[in-house]
Each structure stands twice: as structure tokens, then as C-alpha cells.
Amino acid sequence: MSYYKIDSLEHYFKMYKKSVREPRKFWDKIADEHFTWYQKWEKVIEFDMQEAKFNWFVDAKLNITKNCIDRHLARRGDKTAIIFEPNNPEELAQHISYNELYAKVAKMANVLREQGVKKGDRVCIYLPMIPELAVSVLACARIGAIHSVVFAGFSSAAVSSRINDSECKMVITSDGSYRGNKVIDLKIIVDEALEKSPCVEKVLVVKRTNSKVTMKADRDIWLQPLLDEAVPNNVAEIMDAEDPLFILYTSGSTGKPKGMVHTTAGYMVQTAYSFKNVFNYEENDVYWCTADIGWITGHSYILYGPLLNGATTVIFEGVPSYPDFSRFWEIIEKHQVNQFYTAPTAIRALAKENIDFVQRFPLKSLKVIGSVGEPINEEAWHWYNAHVGGKRCPLVDTWWQTETGSIMISPIPFVTPTKPTYASLPLPGIQPVLMDELRNEIEGNQVTGSLCIKFPWPSMARTIWGDHQRYKETYFTAFPGKYFTGDGALRDEVGYYRITGRVDDVIIVSGHNLGTAPIEDAINEHPAVAESAIVGFPHDIKGNALYGYVILKEVGESRNQENLANEINQLISDQIGPIAKLDTIQFVNGLPKTRSGKIMRRILRKIAEGDFSNFGDISTLLNPEIVEEIKNGKL
């Protein structure tokens, strides 16, 4: 019986029981049979939950790029590792084989070493979704440098704060990036950032848009001439299992970003294992995740997870609406994509458009479709399942976080029966529990509570860079002895999990705990509604009341908005109860979101309360201009 690949529901339950009963043996077997090591481990794990200290595969030695690239060369050297699909559909796609990827990574690794980057140094990568981004990430891992990828849409202030927090020695950027019909001058943003980041010694610049840039003497260097001179082979650095692999910044509730640190061996083992199972990847498949490598989804499921399994992975530079709203479906058809992984935000946006954009493409190559970034609402789930998956592709609704490193709860295609809006069952090795307000574990099914994990898992973040105390307090103090996810969840009658939203999105109205997700689901079923977000605001009698921000499918919806508001509240009353009705509904054109699609409820809450002061740094939002528009609509 294979430990690595689950092929039936019976097999899943056997593996899951083994993984809970003997987690050390379970992970030992997966790590031992499927990866290349310089030296095996003394112990599978040592940990102290109280101090939030975790050491997986103790004293093992490895290099993750040997597992992503080198070990595939003998059997898969000519196989395509990366398909690069440019922003402009008229520009030719690139197919990069594993042999070619090895040469590119080796050259880049040699360039980094020649420029003074050593094991343990931090390198900030601020690049668009082009092959050089993947190559730079892997080259850092090759030489033991710690990569810190910053999404190439963040402001100079956001870039600078991340560089300074981890004291990056080098920045890798480009002259510019293409995004739809726009050209963004990335080098200018980096120049502004570095005015406040004296720790950076070198800036390597990729030529992508031929934008006019200023090159600072003794600091800025065009990358291509260095690569042209570099040798196409490289000896990988020997890394300890717990050596940091990367830092990835995620938004904190206080507004100060948290630099989550992921280490080498545990991240490698679990990311590879979860990719293989959640996407049912087979040898000749073409896999595409539409995320950006600037986010954890891109790290784990565009680069590391696929390459560790010898997969062919698509990197897409553009956006789903350019040149029109058929772009995703056109790419799936063009490259005969078999697994497609995207965000509910994208699905909802595309579902608003003419159905012909999808229906003109057969999409018969698809075998598995997936959702990531936030819980997917029922309407979007059904649209995605019917129009993209053709009701024949399993839809894997995945739950995980930047902090968890890899997927934790998800259906396994052709194994786990799917249920709309439910992430379903935990993957083997993951032990979720629901906790009540008295810190007691809630037994049985058909219950709700705070979602925690009660045993460590290999890909978990080990700390917050430079602030272990914050890491401990954020994740391990609310429920001692357990990792607190910050999410609430429902466990149904068969043990399936549904994420109900952030626990801080549970609003107590007249003594009733109301999760925002079920109310939003009810609102979104109204035929005129595209998307909604609910927050609480102070109320003299109820303690809190509900404030709804609602986006309509058609701008300038002709019906009277007062009538629409009444219809929406009637829907809520019918589905949840009168207690969940909204005191205020504000119709808006958009919601403030992070680049990964998470709604910034902190901002919406302040606007609902009439507090327009100190929204924090909103330049990193997907749509910072919407904040002012919503605020003006409230006035």
C-alpha cells in the first residue's frame, strides 16, 4: 500500500488513522522513500508546543533544488518543467525543460555567489511572473540564500519595510512589468524603496519591458550579461533540515506585516506530498495555478510542489481579463491544462461576464479544478463546477494558510466525495480540532468552534523573522498546546469541515454569535448580487449590529436600492433568521482586498463605525482606490 499516493476512500482512512496514531512513522516513511538526502535524520521530530519550537527531520542534510531539478534529469531531462505564458497572447509561450531549468538555475546561482551572496544572506525578489522569478527563487535555494519574494505590485514603502525587516543584501528586479494593457515601472519603485533601505548592496535588473531606467553606479547591474558569462553547472549547498528556505510576509491584524519563516526539509516533504494527492498529478499532465509566486500559493503550488514531483507547471504573466475575459479558458485550451487552481475572487469576477467567454472552449483536457485563498461561496462553487469543470472534474476546495506552508484540509480527487462550500477532510498527517470559548475540545459532529491543529506538521512556519515572541503569542497562546488558525469552522454530520471565516469575523448580535460567511452566502444568492462583505458596528441596544457592503452584478442596477435592500434582508431572514438581518446596507463597486483575494474587513469595520482615521498602509491592496470610494459613499 502506497503511503505517498492515495487512490481510494478506504486507502485514505487507513492512511489517516496511521498518520494520527503514529505521526512520526508516517512522515518518516514518506520522507525516506521519495526524496534525495545527503544525510538522513536522527529523529523525525522534536518539539515544544509551549515555546512554539519545532525541529523536523533532526540533523538531516539536503538541498531542495536537488529534489526539484537534479534528480529528474536522468529520466525527465527533456520534459517541460515550466511553460511560460506571457501577458500578451501574441508573444510566443516558452517551454523550459528540466535540463534547461538546471542550466538557468546553475548560472543564476553562480551569478549570486559572484556578487557576494552567501548561505544565510537574505535576497529580496521583486519581479513580475516571468521565468526569471522562478529561476531566482531556485538559485537562492541552491546556494542557501534565504529568498524573500515581494509581490511586484506593492508600493515602495511596502517593499522597503520588508527589505529592512529581514536586512536583505540584494534585490532582484526588472525594468518593468506588463499587467494587462499597462506597463508598470518596477525599477522606479525599487529605487524609491532603497532610499530608505541602506542594507542593500546590489540590485540585479532583468530587462523585460525596455522601460527607461536609471542605473546607480556600483549598485545596479543588468542581469543578462552576467548570465551570459556564467557557467551552466553548479554544486548545490548542503543545507540542514531546519535551515531557513524563505521568508514570506503576510498581513498582520495590527497592520505590521509578519515575516513567516519556512525551513527546508519539512516544507519540501509536505508540499510535495500534498501536491501529488490534492491535484492527482500524473506523469504527463500539465498543471496550472493562476496565483502569483509573491504569495504562498505560488511558492508551494506553482514552484516547489510541482517541481518536486517532476511536473509541468504553467507560469502566467497576465490577468484573466486581458485581452478579454476568455483568457484563462484560452490558455487551458492552448496548453491542454489538466489541473487548474485559482481563487474564488477570480471565479466570481469571471462568472459576472458573458457565459460565451467560457462556452467557446471545450475545456475537455481538465481533470481536476481547485479553489484557494478564501472559502468559496455556493453560487461560485456551482458556476465553477458546471461551466469550467463540466460537472465531471472534482472541485478541490482547499484550506490552508501562509503559516501552514501547504494544504491542510481538502478533498482528494476521485477519492473524497465533494460537498459545495466544504473543504471536507484533513489530509493525512493533519489533526484539526474545534475548540470552544472555554478552551475545551468540542467532540462529535454537527458542531462549530475555533479551528486549531493539535499536532505539529512538517511544512509549518517555524517563527516570525526576528520576533519569535510574536509568533508564539499569535498562534500558540489562545489555546495552549495547540496551533490556533484564527479561523472558525463547522464540522458536519460526517466530519467534513467548512471554514466559516476568521474568528474575529464572528459578530455577537444580541447575544447571538453570527459568522459572516453564512450571511454573505445568503446575500450572494440574490440574483442581482455579485459579492458581499459583512462587518459589525456598535449598536446601543444589540451591542453590535450588522453592516453589509454589497456589489451588484450590473453597475447602475435599475431597481430601487431600498427595494433591493429589503429583498436581501428577506433572504437572510429566510435562510438564517431575523436576528441576522442587516441594519445598514451600502451598495459599492468593489471591496478592499489583498492581492491574494482576502477582504480587508479591518478597513470596512472602521468605515462602518464612521472612523476614517489610520487605515494603515493601503498601497499593498489590490485596489487601494476603492477605500476612498467606499468612505465617500458612507459620508
Oligomeric state of the chains in view: single chain
Can you say what the CATH homologous superfamily of the largest domain is? ANL, N-terminal domain
Structural class, please?
A: alpha/beta
Count the domains: 2
Q: How many strands in all?
A: 30
Give the strand order of the largest sheet, numbering strands 1, 2, ... along the chain.
Answer: 5-4-17-16-18-19-20
How does this model look, in words?
This protein is an alpha/beta fold and 635 residues long. It has two domains: 403 residues, 3-Layer(aba) Sandwich (Rossmann fold), CATH 3.40.50; 125 residues, ANL, C-terminal domain (GMP Synthetase, Chain A, domain 3), CATH 3.30.300.30. The chain is 32% helix and 23% strand. It has 20 helices and 30 strands. A seven-stranded mixed beta sheet has the order 5-4-17-16-18-19-20, sandwiched between helices. A hairpin with a 2-residue loop joins strand 26 and strand 27. Helix 5 crosses helix 6 and helix 7 packs across helix 8. It is globular, with a radius of gyration of 24 Å. The protein starts with 8 loop residues before the first helix and ends with a helix. The model has no long low-confidence stretch (mean pLDDT 93).
